[in-house]
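User: My collaborator sent over this chain with a note saying "see what the structure looks like." That's all I know about it. Can you take a look?
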Amino acid sequence: MISVVGPDLSGPIFFVNCSGFKHDLPMRRLYTALFFIGLFGFAQKALSQCQPFYSVACSSADYIENFSTTGGSTNITNLFSGCNGMPNNYIDYSSTQILTTVPAATITFTVQSGSSWSQGFGIWVDWNDNGSFYDAGEFIYNSGFSSTSSFTSSFVVPPASGQVTMRVVCSFASVPMDPCGSYSFGECEDYAVVLCTTPPTPTVTSPVTTCAGATATLNASTTSGTLTWFDVATGGTAQGTGPTFTTPVYPTAGLDTMWVETQNSGCSSTRVPIFITINAAVGVTLGGDTSVCATSFLLDAGYPGSSYLWSSGQGTQTISITTSGTYSVNLITPQGCTGTDAITVTLGQPPFYTLGNDTLTCGTALVVDAGSGYSSYSWTTGATTQTISVNINDTVGVTVIDANGCVMNDSIIVTLSPAPNVSLGADITQCGGSVMLDAGNPGNLYFWSNSTSSQTTTASSSGAYSVTVFTAAGCSDSDTINVTINSQPTQTLGPDTAICLSSVVLDAGNPGSTYLWSNAMTSQTITVTSGTYSVTVTDPSGCTVGDTIVVTTNTPPNVSVSQDTAICPGGTATLTATGALSYLWSNNSPSNPLTVSPTTNTSYYVTGTDANGCEASEIVIVSLLTPATAMFTHTVSMATAYFTNQSTGAWSYSWNFDDGSPLDNSQTPAHTYTVNGVYTVTLTVTGPCGTETYTQTVTIVDVGIGEETLENSISIYPNPNDGHFTVTFLLNESKDVTVEMTDISGRVISATQYNNVNVVNQEMNSGDLADGVYFVRVITSEESVTKKVVIQR
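Assistant: Without extra context I'll predict from the sequence alone. Here is the result:
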């Protein structure tokens, strides 16, 4: 229950119950209740931070709907919280909604009211954690005006540590300027801010090597905090904690990276990478099972520098075996990779050997090959080479010894019958003309594929030409040649040229051909600078063509322009371009320098042309500064004037209160006068384009008179209502009073004037008005108080 009491305890008094209706209450009982309530409230305030006072519960839809932050290592995300339903519209979220950050960090926040009533916002942070929000620098934000739309701003965290309290306050149709003030409609929420220092960056061991099919153990250290491991450079889910971390098994060879950071009280250091090389699995091979004639055989496991264990007990890379059997080896490389293999070796059994079949040939000689890979050869002709040439009819044999000492031999019968040797030569490709083909071997019989029968024939078109030559003894020989007669390619690089570029692309054309440029390039196109260039083009048929071109390249001018600038409205800027011979600006002016006076932010382009006619462009931006405007409103309570600064674009403020007091440089001051009178208050603001002033007169009539309590004495009931309600208030002295009712746009619906009264009890009959929000304004010569009225049927 919220009580509203006038200063005169003998007059009427009202209270508002939870439904919003007000009722009479006997004066003495209410006074006694308020006395004990006041004592209880004083005790509560002494035990905790102060709280603002709201005369109407936030269920009227005046509340903080959303509040969130970004930029911390943890952030506040209190969204769609609605009316908190707690006493005095206050709730403490500091146990669940925590902003964790470090000094000098920039924190961005967004705050928004419910969608029904416009709210203004104020935000405070008790940086020194002394239980007060009134210290310098602790009022970090005011919204400047009220709205149902969201407000977004930011602040920089000052040097501080520990956990402190952030307070967010809203009030209807105004901006709260006191974290513990009195308001009609609104809500107050407290949050926790944890201030910590960035922990030290960890020291790591990197790179790390492992093998496919194995894990890798990673190590890191730090002077304080907890080491936390990640598989991504930013974000992600922690994979483990502590000074060591074992990766999963790597199935294949490759590269991997893990990251580690130090965490301390919600703050994290920079993540440090550890690079992991996964070596391929060892592929030991002793070769296929084998039989050798030797009495010993050398086995080699490979991978020098590894550790070895043979099935025969040796620990060396190679072993010499003297007994047939199956032998296996296991090895471990210096990287820890393992491998194994086995082989079966049979000693003393020679392999099969043959020179081939007996041979009849029409040639004058026959080359007989005993095969490669043997350590020695011994022919029946006395030769010791791998091959011999037999030029008589004969039986020839050979004895060979292989690397294992096995001795093998064989022989064949060679019968020779001289045969013609026909060779048409290599395939011919030429550009145009015809080709004369000659089968040689004069005096024999010739059969050409083009149905001619002489020793020579003429090929005048592309195709395959073959010939068979028979001797009188019936020996024959044949050959085939492919003749390709192609057309000559065409190619031109064009006339000699000069361009305004640093390079030019030359194209030799004839796609699919091969190219040889004078600069040794072999592509169809090349990029060149000044010089003489030639190219030879060979098409797929082998035909060639060449051309030469002289290229002169002129480099475009290096145009530069004066820096971007900002001017005040009505001012001028001088733009200067350099690096060329002549200039043309985007406003078609050839002047240089160019003087401009734009009325909006404007980009100016300039194109410079050099002596070769080459051009280049540059841009400069001229921006308009926004002049400062001076504006303020004020209210008067007794002898104190409260000023609301509505200036824009100002850097500094100077207030002259017209009473001889020193100038005040506050943004939104309050000033107490000591003498009644009419004062001309002047606000001078300074901005980017100089100073601006604004004046208002302030009337002070209550110096020495007790505090006026019109704000607290006004009672509207019932509220909400159906258009019929009563406005009651009590003044501490008789005066002229006007009671107005306006809609939300400010339009006056009704107005009643009272002369020389100190008690007003006015019944309002607005039953013909539509449902919605309206305002009742009580105006005296000293002050004006506005109350919200809700008509809801």
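A starting point for your reply to your collaborator: The mean pLDDT is 85.
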